[in-house]
Amino acid sequence: MGKPLPETVRTAFLTIQVRETAAWVNSSLCILMKTIRLFQSTTCNLNPIMETPARDPQLWRMAKARAKFKSHLFTYFAVNALLWTIWALTDRHSHGGIPWPVWSTVFWGIGVFMNGVGVYGGFGKSQLSEREYERLLRQRTDRI
Predict the structure, then answer these.
(1) What does each of the 144 residues of the chain score in pLDDT, given as a tens digit?
(2) Strand, coil or helix: 76
(3) Residue ranges of the alpha helices (H) in 7-100?
(4) CA-based angle 74:77:82, to the nearest 5?
(5) Residue from 57, 58, 63, 56 nearest 127 by CA
(6) In sequence order, what DSSP letters do the residues of 89-134 get, joined into one string?
(7) What parts of the sequence cross the membrane (predicted)?
């Protein structure tokens, strides 16, 4: 066996390992916490590519509402296609009158349409709130 390392070398080596491990743990925790959005800290030394850019809150809400609407629209088409397929393969010739998938297609379609008007048509809650706020602000300045 070789000669053991002097105590100072072993201590220095362990200190370097501990510091590197602590830095790795710190950066890993920062990434994890930013990922689950527990805090928005500027003290974490993360790669700037990974940091989220500053967002306009109103545009971010609109983008989320539009993405949610698109998801809802896709679900509407997929489920209704499945219902109409089931009707066509099973029940189509046994009953006269209106096919049963019409009801879900029409009434759910009304809901999807209203959701689309609210998201894209300028009649959403946030737009109405902004208009009401501006109206109240004008009334207030007219009184003064």
Answers:
(1) 566 666 665 565 556 665 666 566 566 666 666 666 655 554 555 554 555 678 888 888 888 989 999 999 999 999 999 999 999 898 776 667 888 899 999 999 999 999 999 888 866 666 777 778 888 888 888 887
(2) helix
(3) 7-35, 57-86
(4) 125
(5) 58
(6) IIITTT--SS-THHHHHHHHHHHHHHHHHHHHSS-SHHHHHHHHHH
(7) 73-90, 102-123
**4: helix, coil or strand?**
coil
Cα separation of 23 and 141, whole Å? Answer: 56
**Which tokens go with 140?**
């207030």
Hey, is 55 helix, strand or coil?
coil
33: Cβ contacts below 8 Å, ≥ 6 apart: 39, 41
Neighbours of 62 (CB within 10 A): 16
Give me the residue label for tokens 């109103």: 58
